[in-house]
Amino acid sequence: MGLWGGGYFSRKNTQKLYTQSMGFLNLEHEPKHRHDIQKALEKRGLRFDADDDWEIHGTHPGMDYQVYVGTAYIDGQNGSQEIWVAIYPHAVYEIDDSDRWQKIYAVRRIVLV
């Protein structure tokens, strides 16, 4: 069902995810994560470069979900603008930098387009 369908992150499935608590992703060899990131960003009019570094945080006791952290691009008439984002299971937020992925604010939530 995937990240955004909720089934993958149900309570019964989180136990097997505890081995992936944090680290960098190699999106070339991890198509499930690549798909989830791309889908979340496309829904918000953003794009990403699979060659950029992306981090994953969670799951672990006390945090039964995963958060992706990396750079996204906003395409405009004057070129692209790079922003840091944190992708939570049901929302995407602009953040100041990758070390501050837990500092999310409702006003920085990126809405669906």
What does this structure look like?
It is a single chain. Helices cover 14% and strands 29% of the residues. The protein is of the alpha+beta class and 113 residues long. The longest helix has 12 residues, at 31-42. The chain is globular. The two termini are 22 Å apart.
Characteristics of this structure?
2 helices, disordered N terminus, globular, alpha+beta, 113 residues
Topology:
Layout: H1 11-14, E1 22-25, H2 31-42, E2 54-57, E3 67-76, E4 79-88, E5 91-95
Antiparallel strand pairs: 1-2, 2-3, 3-4, 4-5
- For the secondary structure, the number of strands is 5
Uncertain runs are: 1-19
Which series of helices and strands comes N to C?
Answer: HEHEEEE
Q: Give the distance, in angstroms, between the N- and C-terminal Cα atoms.
A: 22 Å
Please report which band the strand proportion falls in: under 5%, 5-15%, 15-25%, 25-35%, 35-45% or over 45%: 25-35%
Strand order of the largest sheet: 1-2-3-4-5
Helix/strand/pairing class, anyone? Answer: alpha+beta
* Total helical elements: 2
Task: Offer a quick outline of the entry.
With 113 residues, the chain is an alpha+beta fold. The chain is 14% helix and 29% strand. It has a five-stranded antiparallel β-sheet with strand order 1-2-3-4-5.
